[in-house]
Amino acid sequence: MTVTEKSMANAIRALAMDAVQAANSGHPGMPMGMADVATVLFSDFLKYDPKTPKWADRDRFVLSAGHGSMLIYSLLHLTGYARPTMQDIKDFRQLSSPCAGHPENFKLAGVETTTGPLGQGFATAVGMAIAERHLNAVFGDDLVDHKTWVIAGDGCLMEGINHEAVGLGGHLGLGRLNVLWDDNGITIDGGTELSTSEDIPARYRASGWHVVSCDGHDFDDIRKALSEAEADPRPSLIACKTVIGYGAPTKQGTSATHGAPLGDEEIAGARAALGWEPEPFVIPDDILTSWRQLGEKGAAARAEWEARLDGHAQAAEFNRRMAGELPDGKAMQTYMEGLAKDPPKWATRKASEMALGAITEALPEMIGGSADLTGSNNTKTPSTKPLTKDDYSGRYIYYGIREFGMAAAMNGMALHGGIIPYGGTFLVFTDYCRGAMRLSAIQNARAIYVMTHDSIGLGEDGPTHQPIEHIQSLRLMPNMHVYRPADAIETAECWALAIKRSDGPSTLALTRQGLAPFRDDVSTNRCEKGGYRVKSAENAKRVVLIATGSEVALAMAVAAQLEAAGIGADVVSMPCTELFDGQSAEYRNDLLGSDGILRVSIEAGTTFGWERYTGLDGLRFGIDSFGASAPIDDLFAHFGLTADAITPQILEKIG
Ligand SMILES: Cc1ncc(C[n+]2csc(CCOP(=O)(O)OP(=O)(O)O)c2C)c(N)n1
Ligand SMILES: [Mg+2]
Asked: Which of 485, 561, 12 is nearest to 291 (CA)?
């Protein structure tokens, strides 16, 4: 008996029902509804090789509707990826299993990106599709010629970030991006008519997308729609009309199947309806064999690609970039030696621009951009001409006013490989990027955030634009390195560290206002330890001043007043607390001083959290309210961040 596509799709449905039932938690409805569509995608459209899951020219598949994780786990298992094993699937949602509640890119090859926060997978896929077109423009069809496929739900299309992603994807004409919309008319609260009246196809068409629809349970119709999407030069939305929980006798088509085990009785009914007889977690040999044969189809294309790569003139450079390795070179060192000769008084955003000039010239894998603040974020360099629909070889993306979409696209580029993305906006608008910054951190993605206007130092724009809690809140985020450099040399050092960090994101918090230089030594990267002493006490040491960014100069001024009063004071610049926390206890204690020494923090943002370094007995100078609209000097005076305001408080404290 030949194996039907329906029975192959039913294998996905059975695994989804069984795994969710065993875990007593999870989402069976979406995998059951999209099983037929996914079967067609993995049969005839997706380019992949389970035996070489990281093959650079594979298609990228993104399950944006991450709650339906059992869909991708089933597909990876059935098509023959080494993991998940059937045991992994039996252990769905348990600590021992790579089959986590939502797909995690660091747990399974074949999971290209972590998904779960709705809408972000889709927006990340836009970045992957940009990466593909850019690398194609640089390396040609022989090495880079793949597509990006997304499965997205109603939720992914409803989220605000979807509008940013669709706008950007349409504008850049990303024709190799194809989104399969699980158009089931159901979300958690019930039917989509409860919450939306939007004409989704019209919105996509208006944004430059091609839209096609199909019956998501009719294999021929699905195949026809996917072929049409592939052929169309625009990005495509394929509206797949499906029934959530397809096969469940009393619950299908309702939100009851969305996020809860179906229960033994309903599962028994579904098995009867689908004609699925095997025990739980058993796939009949003939069906498994058919799936495995599908999984073997891509090996030939992969072998042909390897043959093309072998001996290709650009092979070494292509491999270097895809491995995320930096080239040898001294561009940065030369740039810094130039700075040391005549240290400039630049805003750190300007210093960042100048450092980026050297970096982007030396590293062709860097793609920059800004969310419509190019001239303020200083993110554009002579080496980065615009990346446009007509010229994907460009390296600068005008993201428009789409901060969240920008950050998610940066994740997509970083995860695709071959690119180191950086992008800018005002630091205060990290709030708009935050969901994607968190996913950069979870996914160990090398995305670099260039966040300027980092304090009340931006002046007149006032409290809506002045970050207060932002720097500390980003420091709170696990795996996010936050840099707040204090002069041009520190800025270059922080950039070097951010780029070198291949397994995680970095945020650079940069000033609008000019900062006096205080460094002229560039023999070692002093920011590498996160914090270091920039001035040692001249009198007997009583105080250690710990400052970041623009407040290092203020700390130096305070220290000068203390010394004049006979009080010895060290000044520590702390550009990156995450790196400092990784130093030995000996180093940290030596730097911050021990018993009898007053520790004082100065940062033009919240004082919350600085107790960590000052101790409860220390002093913390910062701003614990919203800012205000005024010229910069008036603001620093108003918020008590001047040497004349701070020094007397220190003197009083030490008595
Ligand atoms: C940003 C975000 N908000 C809320 C959720 C919680 N959530 C998970 S699935 C879901 C409903 C999604 O509906 P849909 O995409 O149509 O999925 P379906 O029920 O059809 O599987 C919600 C609200 C989430 N995962 N991410
Ligand atoms: Mg839905």
From this structure: 12
- C-alpha of residue 574 to centroid of ligand 2, in Å: 47
| Helices 5-23 and 29-40: angle between axes, nearest 10 degrees | 150
Q: What is the pLDDT of residue 287?
A: 98
The two tokens of residue 613 are: 């370094």
Closest CA to 28 of 265, 256, 239: 256
What does the alpha-carbon distance between residue 314 and residue 140 come to, in Å, rounded to a whole number?
10
Q: What is the pTM of this model?
A: 0.98
SS3 430: helix
- What's the rounded Cα separation, in Å, for the pair 570 and 78? 63
Strands (DSSP E) contained in 361-499 are: 366-370, 396-398, 420-426, 448-452, 481-483
CA–centroid distance, residue 458 to ligand 1 (Å):
39
Q: From 461, 399, 396, 405, select the one nearest 428 (Cα to Cα).
A: 461
What is the per-residue DSSP string for 554-579? HHHHHHHHHHHTT-EEEEEE-S-HHH
Q: Which residues contact 532 (CB under 8 A, 6 or more apart)?
A: 526, 572, 573, 591
Measured between alpha carbons, how far apart are the two ends of the chain, in Å? 92
Looking at the chain, the whole-number percentage of residues with pLDDT higher than 70 is 100
Answer for the pair 185, 138: CB distance below 8 angstroms, yes or no: no
d(CA 226, CA 293): 21
359 within 8 A of 499, measured Cβ to Cβ: yes
Half-sphere exposure of 420 (CA within 13 A, CB side): 28
Tens of pLDDT, residue by residue over 307-347, are: 999 999 999 999 999 999 999 888 899 999 999 999 999 99
Provide the residues around ligand 2 (an ion) whose CB is within 5 A: 153-154, 184, 186
CA separation for the pair 334, 317 (Å, rounded): 23
Q: What whole-number distance in Å separates Cα of residue 401 and Cα of residue 370?
A: 9
Measured in residues, the chain has a length of 655
Rounded Cα distance, 620 and 640, in Å: 12
Instruction: Classify residue 105 as left (phi > 0), alpha (psi -120 to 50) or beta.
Output: alpha
Residue 337, Cβ neighbours under 10 Å: how many? 12
Bridge partners, residue 179, by sequence: 150, 237
164 is a catalytic site residue: no
Percentage of the residues of the chain whose pLDDT score is greater than 90: 98
**DSSP E strands, 261-363:** 346-347
DSSP 42: I
Element (H, E) at 624: none
The answer, yes or no, to whether any atom of ligand 1 lies below 6 A from the CB of 67, is: yes
DSSP assignment string, 608-647 = TTTHHHH-TTSEEES--S----S-HHHHHHHTT-SHHHHH
**Residue at 390: amino acid letter:** D
Ligand 1: residue whose CA is nearest its atom 21: 30
Cβ–ligand 1 distance for 120 under 6 Å, the answer no
> Token pair of 486, please?
């204090």
Contact assessment for residue 49 and residue 298, using Cβ atoms and an 8 Å cutoff:
yes
pLDDT at 1 over 80: no
- CA–centroid distance, 457 to ligand 1, in Å, is 40
* CB atoms inside a 10 Å sphere around CB 501: 15
Q: What is the pLDDT of residues 137-160, one digit of tens each?
A: 999 999 999 999 999 999 999 999
Residues 85 and 99: their CA atoms lie apart, in Å, by 10
Instruction: Find out whether the beta carbon of 244 lies less than 6 Å from any atom of ligand 1.
Output: yes
Secondary element (H or E) of residue 208: none
Q: What are 134's two structure tokens?
A: 């850019």
Structure token pair of residue 587: 């180093």
